[in-house]
Permease IIC component
Amino acid sequence: MKTGLLDKISEKIMPLAGKIGSNRWLCAIRDGYIAVMPLVITASLFTLINSVILGPSGLTNMLFGNPFTEAQQLGAFISSASMSVLGLLLAFTTSKALTKHYGLDTSIGATTAVVCFLCLTPFGTDENIGEFVSTGYLSSTGMFTAFISAILAVELYRFLAGFDALIIKMPPEVPGGIARSINSIIPVTLTVIIFGLVRVLSGLAGMPVNDLITSWVQTPLLGLVNSPVGLVVIYIVYMLLWGFGIHSASIMNPILEPLFLITLTANAEAVASGGAMAGIMTKPFLDSFMFMGGAANMLALVIAILLVSRRADYRTVAKVGLVPALFNISEPIMFGLPVVMNPVLIIPMIITTLVGMGIGALATTLGIAGYTYVMTPWVTPPVLGAFLSTGGSIGAALTAVVILVVCVLIYMPFVKAMDREVEAASTEEA
């Protein structure tokens, strides 16, 4: 494949990719997801402490004969207060991001969207505790309902607020905050009524909207990202976009990462309840086995260059990119070497990603590596990230080392090919 052909393909793909990557709804989902990450990481940290350090099988009991079970309550409370209402939090953060995009009052838009999300959520009653909502609808299980209701609520509110006849005009003397609140009364009321009517109609049909979205949208998407064929297709496209110079994370992650979070949350809940984990594909799995040093296991490419490349410029870029790659930052290599728009490296980028996924999944299935259930920061160094995200699985750390070595071996012949390509070009010029 010639570079000129890559340029032509990139010219065709770039406009479409740019439109998708800048889509206001995907950007709102992305920003909403990012906003809750500190809470998810905090809850995961306490899940790790409760499962590895505290409790009957924890380190404190093994070393000191005291499980400190009372101390586990702290982590349990924090986890319940965050992960059990993750969908509700995402309804707020996503709608706030979209409302901000439109230049509307973010407090009004976000709180309206939360109420709309709750309008779609079944409430129960109990003679002892009164009215209640199952956290099953508010947690990661209700995540896509939260995204959809947040986007539709803000769009509907914005549409209705565009009609002057629905705006209660206030005199200039009224403070701005109060005026904005009163101006929004009718659009907000109509928005909430519409969502309430949807809930009534879905109740008459015998199927809550949450269950419909879970069955028709969320479950099929989860099936796609948990099937071998689906994952292979997704990450071939993911790496091809990178190869054409398109930041694929900005296009695909707003959809993929919420799905991975659902699986991670299910694993964490299984650990907390003493059950068996079953979900393999999570964000920490991706970072631990497929994206060591950044997308396409860039750390392996850096090591391969330092081991076999004779080109001084390649080795200089690799040395500069080594430390960032140790924290999963790949941009110095991606754009400095460059990796993007490089026809020689597109194939190993795809191969190393799929090999990392395959070896990691096989090791997890066979019980060699633990399941990931701790959301570690994405800048956690390779190998250490695999160890921490699996709750201290040495097998996971060793699996990451094996994958890294295999990926270095995969990159080596392609690095040598780049050397030969440049040498041939220099000979022709001479």
The chain has a mean pLDDT of 88.
